[in-house]
Amino acid sequence: MIPAGHEDIAVNLEVCDQVRARAVDPNEAMQALKARIEHKNANVQMLALGLTDLCIKNGGDHFFAQVASPTFMDPISATLRLRRPLVPDVRSKLLRCLQDWRYLAASKPAELGYIVQIAEQVEQAGIELPSPDPNTVAAARVFADTLAAPEWSYGNVCTKCRSEFTTFLRKHHCRNCGRVFCYACADKTMSLPWYGIGQDVRVCDGCYNREGPASTQNTKEAIPPKPRPTQKRMRKEDQDLEKAIQLSLQESKAAPMQNTQQEPVQCAAHAQGPSDADDPELGAAIAASLREMERTAQIMETHPKKRTAGDLGGVAPRAQAPAKSALELASQDVDNVLTFSQTVLQPAAPWKRNVAIDGVPRPVQNMCEKAASSHLRVVRNMDEGNRRLYELVGLHEKLSEAVRMYIGLLDVHGDTLNQTSAAPPLRTSATPSSAAIPAVPQAVPQAVPQAVPQANVPPTMPSAPPLEPGSDTMDAPLVPRFPMVPSAPVEPPADHSETAQDVPLIEFDRRRTTNEEQMQSGISLADKVLSEVVPMSARMIHTLGKDGSVQLDRQPYGTQGEGINSLDRMRLNRLLLEQALAEENVHSFFEHALINVQRRRHNDTVLLTFDVAGKGIVETAHVMLFGCDGINSMVRCKTTSSLRMNISQSYIDTGYVELRIPAGRPRGGACSWKMDPNCLHIWPKHHYMLIALPNTDGSFTVTLFAPFPLLEACREHEEEVLTFFSTNFPDALRAMNEKELVHQMLTIRASPLGTIQCDPLAGGSSIVLLGDAAHAMVPFYGQGLNCGLEDVRVFMEEYDSAMHGDNAISLLQNVKGSFIYSYAMRRRADVDAIQRLAQENYTVMRSKVLSPFFLLRKRLDFLLATLLSADRWQNL
Question: What is the pLDDT of residue 542?
């Protein structure tokens, strides 16, 4: 054990230097010292208090501010005011330190005033603090900032040369002034003893020439100032200028004689012979040089060289300056904006102290006026840049699509050659389109006869006959009009039509050298997902006639088999989780409740805080964070303010309750549905509606959408539930289990519906929001899940296009130059459009499907789709 009162001053000063140089995070240093002060060993407490006091006086204001926080001071205050048992020496040391810190903090009440408040609270509790140390009081009167490594500034251009940072032109920070530079403007290294940094670190040219701490009064010292000329230096420059003039006059006089006489040169050389005789080696070198000059002159006379502009006057040709970009701002505008921003954003500017009394100084007002005049040109150039960015993004998308299709054609050609060389072809009657783009494998179970597809049924076909009350048709199994996709691929039929529309598969990167295994696993995952979907080719509208009978009206989505798929989201989540856990580098953690997200700017990482069951609080640091935690995203909630993200959340006056129609009696070993499984069933009621989506097990997921007052009124008692459904949805009530319906309506809470919009969809270069966490929407368009999958596809596409090599970390350093910014820009417009369509489709489903004008519009839509080609008209 170290003897009481003994402190290793050398080690303590080294710790102070590390804190002052920011080699140790000030918050982490404060937490470590706080833990030592709360230690049970009195010797450890004494040493920790001494080290804390030394770090306060020598570690800089950034550490003192952490000590002055409630996290550090509240436990000390509680220990003293509650008179918890302490060793007398520790208690005396703690009171002495608190008194000293009180006087030191009094010089900066705005940042460090909490220590003064704690000292006053301790005195009010009847605890007497020791008399102040005269040396500490004297030091507090002239207490100045301890030099500490500055905070790093952030920017997208070099502070000195104003070059914009890109993927290849990376940014670097000067450790002396904290500003951002390119590699050419910050290629010097030196130690910074005034900050306690003994090793050589990167500095900018200005700080390297200054050889001292960065000035806090002037923020425009990135360009080194020109040294003031001394008298000795001025005299030397005058002598050099006179010598240059004399040499120029001598050359001009000797130029006319050079072409006619070579002998004076030789005579002059021989005239200096006596001096060369003193050094034989020098004479031999001069003679060799003269012989070389004679040979060069003879060659020039024999083969005269064509004179160029560079030979005239001995002046080298000047390189043509590059054309100025149309988006480049004038240097005066850049200087106006930077001068104003740096002046206002400087935290310790002296003029800010007197603003409350004297107002803003006139020079700062002039800077503001100049910056305002330049702001219009900045906005104009920014709009033009965004317009060009959208154009380039569109060209990039077209090029990427063409490259993918071209690679697909090459793959098809290679597969055909391999099949030809391995075995004779199985059939030769396949059309080129069916060979190049194979259909999704389809098969029908032997126990269920295959129904005729309804893709080519004209839109004017009569509605299905109404289902009479008490009819046995409700219990009869209905065979799907579209065959289900099996999990194992089978050979497609030979006479597959060119106009048939296949369910699109997820697109994957086709670079076989690196992504072949991922591509194969993705295709197998797509097969699994497609085996779980039920295709729906039409809406089935359920209405009541005047006599109370149920009327069915089938409204196809298109004339060429267009449709949507019904998929159980829980089943999809399970498939995705199983596929993810099958990967080697994927790990899953359950019972981890996210409670905080902190973006650390100094190293561009994300610190996550979890409340783990049985373990307490756990913190982990990550390079990137993908927020996929749904509409109530904790990632979005905890990062909104730090990322300056605009969030809008709007609810509609409609809630929903999920119900269920059980499967029918199985027939022939296959599941059966009580309604047509290839339709989206809708019961429109103008202000509310009921919908039903088919599931692969023969059941239907039923959802009741209605205003909240109506939902509450029809859910008070069992009689109200049955009366409401028998009056408005009699056929749905017959298909349901009444006991289960009543239980669900009385126990399930109605959920709200709303839209969430985030701008941007990504935060900096380390946080990305995906799916409902970024753009939750109402479910009436059926595209919420697809938008989440599209987020992933677009993100990976931007990542692949931006990746050059395997160093992904370097791509994350520059936000606007990275794929993350491109992803956010590409998804913004599409997501907004889908959200508006989802809102409008609610009105269509609950009321417009009954309107004669809507039906006439659909008929006209089908007619145009039949007459025109697919590239000229798409069904609404």
Answer: 92
Task: Answer whether 129's CB lies under 8 Å from 98's CB.
Answer: yes
Dihedral, CA of residue 93, residue 94, residue 100 and residue 105, to nearest 10? 160
Digit-coded pLDDT (tens) for 348-394: 777 787 777 778 887 788 888 888 878 878 877 877 777 777 778 77
Asked if residues 552 and 675 have their Cβ atoms less than 8 Å apart, the reply is no
Q: Can you read off the two tokens belonging to residue 56?
A: 């306060």
Q: Which residues contact 843 (CB under 8 A, 6 or more apart)?
A: none
Give the sheet arrangement for strand 762-763, strand by strand.
Answer: 625-627, 767-769, 762-763
CATH number at residue 79: 1.25.40.90
Q: What is the mean pLDDT of the chain?
A: 71
**Which residues are CB-contacts of 20 (< 8 A; sequence separation ≥ 6)?**
58, 59, 60, 63, 146, 147, 148, 149, 195, 196
Chain length of the chain: 876
Domain that holds residue 344: 331-405
With cut-offs at 50, 70 and 90, classify the pLDDT of residue 220.
very low
Q: How far apart are CA 246 and CA 236, in angstroms?
A: 16
Q: What is the pLDDT of residue 606?
A: 84
Q: Quick check: 183 and 203 in contact, CB under 8 A?
A: no
pLDDT at 3 over 80: no
Among residues 688, 631, 687, 630, the alpha carbon closest in space to that of 657 is found at 688
Tokens of 756: 């969430």
pLDDT, position 74: 86
Long-range contacts of range 621-626, CB-CB < 8 Å, 24 or more positions apart?
Answer: 623/766, 623/809, 623/812, 624/766, 624/767, 624/768, 624/812, 625/597, 625/766, 625/767, 625/768, 626/768, 626/769, 626/770
Q: Which residues pair with 752 in a beta bridge?
A: 655
Of the candidates 653, 698, 670, which has an alpha carbon nearest to the alpha carbon of residue 842? 653
Residues 6+ apart with CB under 8 A from 120: none
592 neighbors 578 (Cβ within 8 angstroms): no
Q: Which letter, b or e, does each residue of 791-823 get, where b requires 16 or more Cβ atoms within 10 Å of its Cβ?
A: beebbebbbeebeeeeeeeebbebbebbbbbbb
Please compute Rg for the chain using Cα positions: 40
Has residue 277 got a pLDDT over 70?
A: no
- Condensed to tens digits (0 to 9), the pLDDT of residues 572-589 reads 888 888 888 888 888 888
- Adjacent-strand bridge partners of 164: 157
Confidence check: pLDDT of 858 > 90: no
Indicate the DSSP class of residue 670: B
Phi, psi of 659 (to 5 degrees): -125, -170
Q: Domains in the chain: how many in total?
A: 2
Kindly report whether the global pTM for this prediction surpasses the value 0.85: no
pLDDT of residue 1: 46
Q: Is residue 441 part of a domain?
A: no
| Single residue among 352, 379, 405 that ends a domain in this structure | 405
3-state secondary structure 745-760: HHHCCCEEEEEEEEEC
For 236-303, the DSSP string reads HHHHHHHHHHHHHHHHHHHHHHHTT-SHHHHHHHHHTHHHHHT-HHHHHHHHHHHHHHHHHHHHHHHS
Query: Can you tell me the distance from the alpha carbon of 772 to that of 627, in angstroms, rounded to the nearest whole number?
Result: 9
Take residue 854 and report the two structure tokens written for it: 């809507």
* Residue finishing a domain among 366, 381, 405: 405
Residue 288, pLDDT score: 62
pLDDT band of residue 222 (cuts 50, 70, 90) is very low
Residue with tokens 């480049």: 328
Q: Shortest CA distance to 486 belongs to which of 447, 535, 440, 455?
A: 440
Q: Is residue 39 part of a domain?
A: yes
CA atoms within 13 A on the CB side of 119: 23
Q: In this predicted model, what pLDDT tens digit does every residue of 410-448 receive, in sequence order?
A: 777 666 665 555 444 333 333 333 333 333 333 333 333
If you write DSSP's letter for every residue of 172-241 in order, what string do you get? EE-TTT--EE-TTTS-EEEEEGGGTEEEEEEE-HHHHHHTSPPPSS-S--SSPPPPPPPHHHHHHHHHHH
3-class SS of residue 44:
helix
Q: For residue 772, is it within any domain? A: no
867 in any annotated domain: no
